[in-house]
Amino acid sequence: MSRFRDELWQVVAGVYDQILAHPFLTGLTDGSLPREAFRHYVVQEAHFLPDYARAQAACAARAPEPAAVQRFAADAATTLEVEHSLVVELLAAFGLEETDARKLPAGPTTVGYTSYLVRTCSLGTFPEALGAIVPCYWIYAKVGERLLASSSPDPLYAWWIETYGGQGYQETVAAVLDLLDGLALSAEERARLLERALTTARYEWLFWDSAWRQESWPCG
Question: In tens digits, what is the pLDDT along the chain, a chain of 220 residues?
């Protein structure tokens, strides 16, 4: 029996393949990623994660069923408790306090990505919000699971890989995908959800690419 998650994955699979092949991620696994690129990534995560949690909370507010409200409200809290805590510890490895990191500018991709997530989850329908937010969960879980098989000779990179490839995060994502499969959606709602999912998947690629390039604003 076909599941909606399978249809969604067909839409984003090509982007995911390009993400896996990106030198940022291949450098994570073989240890060759320049520390400056990873530092840039972590600083941008310090900007990204609070808005990601806001998007999750907005998705909860849009949810029609109590189970979905509970799911995304709990996940918003977990984002700040677990993922954000990891970022704080990774920043410390670079000698940075979170307050200092947040004084550094959020890059163009980070601003665009967070704005898209918060706007879609706050102003869109629940299917649109779900489409925007599910690839954030699923691509990180897929990347973490894939990279965990080889991990990394660099302990800092291995630590990041273990967080997203570990059982706890995988179970969280599985619960979201079960929720997705249980939705009764019209053809129009499914199409709008899938359109949002593809945009988010592309932003995922852009986020890693911006860290690889150590992106900054071109003017001002």
Answer: 579 999 999 999 999 999 999 999 999 999 999 999 999 999 999 999 999 999 999 999 999 999 999 999 999 998 888 888 889 999 999 999 999 999 999 999 999 999 999 999 999 999 999 999 999 999 999 999 999 988 999 999 999 999 888 888 889 889 999 999 998 899 999 999 999 999 999 999 999 999 999 999 998 7
> Domain extents for the chain?
4-211
State the Cα angle at 48 between 6 and 25, rounded to 5°.
60
Q: Which overall architecture, per CATH, does domain 4-211 show?
A: Up-down Bundle (1.20)
Instruction: Pick the closest to residue 28 from 215, 219, 212 (CA basis).
Output: 212
Its pTM stands at: 0.94
**Burial letters for 140-166: b for 16+ Cβ neighbours within 10 Å, e otherwise?**
bbbbbbbbbeebbebebbbebbbbbbe
Structure tokens at 163: 């967080």
Q: What's the rounded Cα separation, in Å, for the pair 126 and 90?
A: 34
Work out the angle at residue 57's Cα, subtended by the Cα atoms of residues 161 and 42, and round it to the nearest 5 degrees: 30
Residue type, 198: L
